[in-house]
Design a protein that fits this description.
Order of helices and strands: EEEEEEE
Largest sheet: 4 strands, antiparallel
Mean pLDDT: 89
Low-confidence stretches: none
Helix content: under 10%
Radius of gyration: 14 Å
Strand content: over 45%
Number of helices: 0
């Protein structure tokens, strides 16, 4: 069984969810709450427990991309995850 561990809502109404899967992976999904027909997207990020030495997620922070803002400053999506006392970061530009 997979479980939701954390959620985060950006100021542009994008909702992010971290999930621990039964396959021993962490996954991040997103949902655009501004959409007239919101659809779950993802996982947009997936990595095994071993990558973070099995440390649980203690917190999440997301800086949403600026694509939905009135002035698009070309800011990339960035996700920060706190595993134990270790801070991990992910940037969408790495996957374009």
């Amino acid at each position: 069984m997979s479980i939701i561990t954390h959620t985060f809502l950006t100021d542009t109404h994008d909702f992010y969810v971290t999930v621990e899967t039964k396959e021993k992976n962490f996954e991040v999904f997103t949902l655009d709450l501004d959409s007239s027909d919101p659809q779950i997207q993802g996982p947009i990020l997936k990595y095994p427990f071993e990558k973070v030495q099995g440390k649980q997620i203690k917190g999440i922070h997301v800086r949403g991309s600026s694509r939905k803002e009135k002035i698009n400053l070309n800011k990339n999506l960035m996700i920060f995850l706190l595993h134990g006392s270790d801070l991990w970061g992910w940037n969408s530009k790495d996957f374009e």
